[in-house]
Write a structure and sequence with these properties.
about 200 residues, alpha+beta, 7 strands
């Protein structure tokens, strides 16, 4: 619970326990709590608490806070204003903070894995394209973008055959794709096709 006017801060015993602090060594007061916030997240947290007048909606804010062992814990704060001053500005905030460290670490690990995979795709000297069942582009690597003369943003979501198949071969290429999707052509097969670049070159 945060009293905006008095700038006081009350935390439940479970809050300190979540961070590994005991009753004796728990940091008391708002300033002591703010000192635990990661420097890179302090500004974002302050912005989160600047609510417009008479805003009674619930809000979320995610930040890092230092635990008793010195590690940084990710916390998701879910809060709302429960009292207002004469100008309608929030006078008291009430909320719950949830330790989301495990989820955040998983997200960051997945992001790093995706970045590594993207690096492998980008150094490949061939077109690598992934199509959805509806023929739209789900992935196109850097070399593919270079050859076709488009950016990744321009390619994603477009119908591959409409955008990059020569008119004379479009239906034949669609049929081949349908055969792969239906399983009648097996899981892997070499099929030679031509592509049409942004400039119309083949």
């Amino acid at each position: 619970e945060l009293d905006m006017a008095a700038k006081t801060h009350q935390l439940s015993p479970n809050y300190y326990a979540m961070l590994g602090y005991g009753e004796a060594d728990a940091p008391r007061g708002r300033e002591a709590w703010l000192a635990l916030i990661h420097p890179e997240d302090a500004g974002n947290l302050a912005k989160c608490q600047l609510l417009p007048p008479n805003d009674r909606a619930s809000h979320d804010c995610e930040f890092r806070i230092r635990a008793s062992d010195g590690s940084w814990r990710w916390v998701l704060s879910h809060f709302r204003a429960v009292a207002f001053d004469g100008l309608g500005l929030p006078a008291r905030l009430l909320g719950i903070d949830i330790d989301t460290t495990a989820r955040k670490q998983g997200e960051l690990a997945l992001q790093r894995a995706r970045q590594r995979a993207q690096q492998y795709l980008d150094i490949a000297g061939v077109i690598i394209v992934v199509l959805n069942a509806d023929h739209t582009v789900a992935l196109l690597n850097r070399k593919g973008c270079e050859i076709l003369g488009v950016s990744e943003a321009e390619a994603l979501g477009r119908d591959w055959f409409e955008a990059f198949s020569p008119d004379a071969e479009r239906e034949e290429q669609r049929a081949t794709f349908a055969g792969f999707m239906a399983g009648t052509l097996g899981l892997a097969r070499d099929v030679e096709m031509t592509v049409k670049t942004r400039s119309g070159a083949i």
